[in-house]
Amino acid sequence: MIRLWDLGQQRCVHSYAVHTDSVWALSSTPTFSHVYSGGRDLSLYLTDLATRESVLLCTKDHPILQLALHGDSMWVATTDSTVHKWSAEACNPQKVFERGCSFLAGNLSFSRSRVSLEGSTPVPVYKEPSLSIYGTPGIVQHEILNNRRHVLTKDTAGTVKLWEITRGAVIQNYGEVSFDKKKEELFEMVSIPAWFTVDTRLGSLAVHLDTPQCFSAEMYSADLNIPGKPEDDKVNLAQETLKGLLVHWLIKRRQKFGSQLSINGEVPSGKDVSTKILTASRVEVDSNADNDSAVFPPFEFSAASPPSIMTEGSQSGPWRKKITELDGTEDEKDMPWWVIDCVMNNRLPPRENTKCSFYLHPCEGSTVQILTQGKLSAPRILRIHKVINYVIEKMVLDKPLDSINSGGTFAPGMHGATGGDDSFRTGPKPWQTLKPSIEILCNNQVLSPDMSLATVRAYIWKKPEDLILNYHVLPSK
């Protein structure tokens, strides 16, 4: 319904039943004699407030959200991303009614309106807009995949695409396929902590990072296919993504202020980013991070179609800039201090425990036992094939019990407490010429060597208590 209110009397004086569904947009002529209305029924009407006569100007393929009268034309915005311009005859609206096809708006319900049309559907006055500004299809559906790097989206054109978050790019266009079926096809049984959130309220993909949870996800460089980097180096996804986003800013900042930026977190006077950085407690330095501005290929963002960074500073308020438009003068008033500290100094805020505790026991009836006792600890991303190698090493070399340190972490070399797992690194070892076949089981289920401890805990173990793994030596052929 369209309702006309008398503000002096503080009551509704007229009601106009024109639309068949909710009215979402209104605009009146300069003299307030006629009103344009659009809404959920995809239709744009012109109504004479005095005579109650209405006419259908046009119909759309999408619900109408907003109307803007400009001269004799009406700009119409819908849930689609394209904006159309229609003739409105705002200066002389009677010209529209002279074309006929008008009806009388009811005042109680839609069933009592359109009495002059004898129940027929009104014919629109205009078939085509006078001008259209085309936009790209807006994203209306999304799903974050289990690998925490890819997001599946569907837009208003029905096209399903796969995005890589760490590069801000579409890596696969599936066309018009079933979103739910494609989501099932892409399912991976992996467990990686949620380090970002996504929304599509603007019709585009918006990725949000919040500290400290954004720094909880790590992957091995081998899984990211990073050339020239040791395959067992751990890569923090949020840290490398931030470095990729702000590489233009960092280069320009170093050009402006020199190398003093990276020395002890100090910055030139007047740009004191380090005030909060140096006073923060338990700031963690990632020992595996490179101390330069190099960006790995999986985290390179396109300069041809760069994403925008939206942030809300503590003083200047919200702003948005494309990553290529950053000039190096942005500081902690514009960007969070922990972001700047991460990019400039490779320092991360305190994070939740990234370790996974577990027990390693022989299978029931097994005659082979390795000398391990107590709880073990390793990074959550550790693969089962590294546990297999550990069992083989213990069996072949027959290491004494004191090879496991009092903290229960892998030792020597398996420094779980400091983030390293050196004994799991590849390279020639004396036991590699004697490789018995080992299976690792959990809940009587044989584990794939490519599974991580986190995946086993999430999908196989499914219990709150510490993980229990069993090893089994296969008979030799």
TrEMBL record:
Pfam families: DUF3337
Gene3D superfamilies cross-referenced by the UniProt entry: YVTN repeat-like/Quinoprotein amine dehydrogenase
Keyword annotations from UniProtKB, A to Z: Repeat, WD repeat
InterPro entries assigned: WD40/YVTN_repeat-like_dom_sf (IPR015943), WD40_repeat_dom_sf (IPR036322), WD40_rpt (IPR001680), WDR48 (IPR051246), WDR48/Bun107 (IPR021772)
CDD domains, sorted: Ubl_WDR48
Key word Repeat present: yes
Protein name per the record: Transducin/WD40 repeat-like superfamily protein
Biological classification of the source: Eukaryota, Viridiplantae, Streptophyta, Embryophyta, Tracheophyta
